[in-house]
UniProtKB/TrEMBL annotation:
Organism: Leuconostoc litchii
Membrane-spanning intervals of the chain: 20-38, 44-61, 98-120, 126-147, 159-179, 199-218, 239-260, 280-306, 337-355, 367-390, 410-429, 441-459
Subcellular location: Membrane
Domain Amino acid permease/ SLC12A per the UniProt entry, residue ranges: 16-467
Name by which UniProt lists this protein: Amino acid permease
Length: 479
């Protein structure tokens, strides 16, 4: 397909889209935070929480897949919310999502410096952050194909590491690799594998929700996929089984081989790779360089997350500019189909990472991070609502469901289940702050919510928009 200057290029191959969907759900949440979830809720408690969130994410992705194959666009759920629900919702979701990934880019850039200190403790972390930011900018400035290829190989490293972990872990559990670990005792701790009751499982719900954030990237890639009718459904159909294999089986291995009260599980962090649950299992299997190995993999995960963040926020800003929801300069494309102005602004936000290294700037940076904390979950709520409205409008306008290139599973249960769970996870961020009426904690934890509401109301009042009647919903497909 020939492309003209000023036009998005559909150069993402099926393998790119599939691996981006997979890479979006694998990161430090699995490599680092998974150990703490076992410590908090026990083996079965952690597995139940991750399985429930995994099922919810699967339904959410099938909802997004139905809309993305019907009308692929880089604006994804922001465009869908604006067309199928209310233009004000699309506006708020677009800016909300751009802000989320732009700040995530800055957070990841800081994390690169922290992780690099494992090998170079006497070198200032900002140097590594600067190199990472420059690398990510170069990957994204050339073409979408360059981004897809880079993300493919970065995700492949994560996949190979997890497969190696599962093989070694299962070999240890079944006695192929000698170990003194009492597997049955570890798996049956507490109340038959559950620890801390419902509240502990709810807290793991929150962690699991953050772990799976990024899977919605598949909706944005649809706008530049070479064959979205085939690549998007294929990627989505694989999401559930990958989640089942990588998360559930990985947590099972961790639970079986590491006692839930092992203090190292709660000590896992990007600054302390030596106690990642993956590192513990590798070390127990006799792999001496386990800490260095996992440090390299976690560094890869962070760079992958930052790379995806740069791409997602750039495309969302571009899509909003095309609709008139952002300055027109951000809709301009290079001859390679890259929205350069949008990329430059997003990269500039990434420079906030360097502010974190200054004493005065750290407070402002912390507020920015808090402000973006729940924006990913808000996007999930928007996806569920948009799909529910899309399907109802499709039927109300007399269209045949069999004409859809991809149909979401179990409608309307799927989007409604995803909606309820997403709202539950948002509320469950810090319920104790409401119980104790700790207004400072409430404000810091839930800052994303009022910011989203303000964006929504500002646009709604200014443009006097209303929720679109089902028969008036614009079901024209994006070209």
């Amino acid at each position: 397909m020939s492309e003209r200057r000023g036009q998005i290029q559909r150069n993402l191959k099926t393998r790119h889209v599939s691996m981006i969907a997979l890479g979006g759900s694998i990161g430090t949440g699995l490599f680092v935070a998974s150990g703490a979830t076992v410590a908090q809720a026990g083996p079965l408690g952690a597995i139940v929480a991750y399985l429930a969130i995994g099922v919810m994410v699967y339904f959410l992705m099938t909802s997004l897949g139905e809309m993305a194959t019907y009308s692929p666009t880089s604006g994804s759920f922001s465009d869908y919310a604006g067309k199928y629900v209310d233009p004000a919702l699309g506006f708020a979701m677009g800016w909300n999502y751009w802000f989320n990934w732009a700040i995530t880019l800055a957070v990841d850039i800081v994390a690169v410096g922290l992780v690099a200190e494992f090998w170079f403790p006497h070198t200032p972390g900002w140097i590594f952050s600067a190199v990472a930011l420059l690398l990510i900018f170069l990957i994204n400035i050339f073409s979408v194909g360059t981004f897809g290829e880079a993300e493919f190989w970065l995700s492949m490293i994560k996949v190979v590491t997890i497969i190696a972990f599962l093989v070694i872990g299962l070999a240890t559990i079944f006695g192929i690799i000698h170990s003194d670990v009492n597997v049955m005792k570890n798996l049956s701790v507490g109340n038959h594998g559950f620890v801390g009751g419902p509240q502990a499982i709810l807290s793991v719900f929150v962690v699991a929700g953050f772990s799976f954030q990024g899977t919605e990237l598949i909706g944005i890639t649809a706008g530049e996929a070479k064959d979205p009718d085939k690549s998007v459904p294929k990627a989505i159909n694989q999401v559930f089984w990958r989640i089942l294999l990588f998360y559930i089986l990985a947590i099972f291995v961790i639970s079986a081989l590491v006692y839930y009260r092992d203090p190292r599980l709660l000590s896992s962090s990007t600054e302390n790779i030596a106690v990642s649950p993956f590192t513990i299992v590798f070390k127990n299997a006799g792999i001496a360089f386990a800490a260095s190995l996992m440090n390299a993999v976690i560094l890869t995960s962070i760079v992958s997350s930052a790379n995806s963040g740069s791409y997602a926020s750039t495309r969302m800003l571009y899509a909003m500019a095309r609709k008139g929801d952002a300055p027109k300069i951000f809709s301009k494309l290079s001859k390679r189909g890259v929205p350069v102005a949008a990329l430059l602004l997003t990269t500039a936000i990434g420079l906030l990472a360097f502010i974190a290294n200054t004493k005065g700037g750290s407070v402002a940076y912390t507020w920015l991070v808090n402000a973006s904390g729940l924006t990913g979950f808000i996007a999930w709520v928007g996806i569920a609502v948009s799909h529910y409205r899309f399907r109802r409008a499709y039927v109300a306008q007399g269209k045949n469901l069999s004409d859809l290139k991809y149909k979401a599973k179990w409608f309307p249960f799927g989007p409604l289940f995803a909606l309820v769970v997403s709202i539950g996870v948002i509320i469950g961020q810090d319920p104790a702050s409401f119980t104790n009426l700790n207004w400072e904690k409430i404000f810091v934890t839930y800052l994303s919510v009022p910011l989203f509401v303000i964006l929504y109301l500002w646009y709604k009042i200014r443009n006097k928009t209303k929720v679109i009647d089902l028969k008036d919903v614009d079901l024209d497909q994006y070209k």
